[in-house]
Amino acid sequence: MELRDFWGKSSKSWLFLILLFIASFGFYSNVFNWIPRWRQREVSQSSCEAHDLQGKRESPPLSKGDCCPDTCRVPRVPRMLYPKAHVLQPTRVDVLLMTPWFAPIIWDGTYDSAILDAQFRNTTIGLTVFAIKKYVVFLKLFLETAEKYFMVGHRVIYYILTDRPADVPQIPLQEGRRVVILKVRNYTRWQDVSLHRMEMISNFSQQRFLHEVDYLVCVDVDMKFSDHVGVEILSSLFGTLHPGFYASDRQRFTYERRPLSQAYIPEDEGDFYYAGGFFGGSVAEVYRLTTACHQAMVVDKANGIEAVWHDESHLNKYLLYHKPTKVLSPEYVWDERMLRKPPYLRRLRYVAVPKNHAQIRSR
Description:
Blueprint: H1 3-52, H2 69-72, E1 105-106, H3 113-119, E2 124-131, H4 139-149, E3 155-162, E4 177-183, H5 190-212, E5 215-219, E6 223-225, E7 237-240, E8 278-282, H6 283-302, H7 311-321, E9 326-328, E10 350-352, H8 357-361
Helix pairs in contact: 5-6, 6-7
């Protein structure tokens, strides 16, 4: 038999064998690629179930695909009686209630506290505050007013980050609330304290916050609570409108405008100007935020530049490109000595305490 006759008669058989081999290779490669994903889902689901079996609190809500199915589940609320919302009768028409990316802006009269309290009834909130050097003098008023107005009826851990643990006052606390003192170092310049806050929150988030609370609220200590601050603020990631710029055009925002800084924001960008003294979210999202800001500050330091408003500048850069899922109105940060209260600001919830900055910031 000639060679060409052999190939001519066998071409169909060879072609069939080649196609069969290709199909088999594709099938098995898909199977082997699928097995690790299946095992990963299985491990993730079992770890979520094990975490839920702890029973004392829900695991911290993470972002996007990170969270376990049960922590993403909409909570069931008990039977309740409350006024019906009317679609054609908005609760507020004098202020903006929604950002362009559909994040609610929280003002008085836009939510029902009873419903929210029911939704967040199994939640533990961590409140972080820095009391470095002479700033410990603000702790007593801060804690006393927090016990009166902050997350009343919910579990709270006050994380006091200080270089003077012996000076932390003992305040009577409601049931389910406690103070945790975290010793940190001090710095010669107050600007350095501001710059290192992000680093310390990031480190403690990884070391303990992730294992102890569901949400973190990060605030300044030289303030006092003067009205209700509850679970209406909680979301994956939230920022607060700065009281000095909430009504301003973006060109007036005091963003970092030097391109050399990692906090740089161009003149034609910006949604809002956020206050550095009141932000938060789920522990995982706060960890991401503070880690990113700290890393940006490290780069700035290597380049010999310091952002104009330190950690607040980096916070604004982060929230520009990682849109917060909730925005708090200036009700949540206000200075009565420097600003006159407008009529649409019905409540002042967290206000500045009068102080001598030069004296407090010195040793």
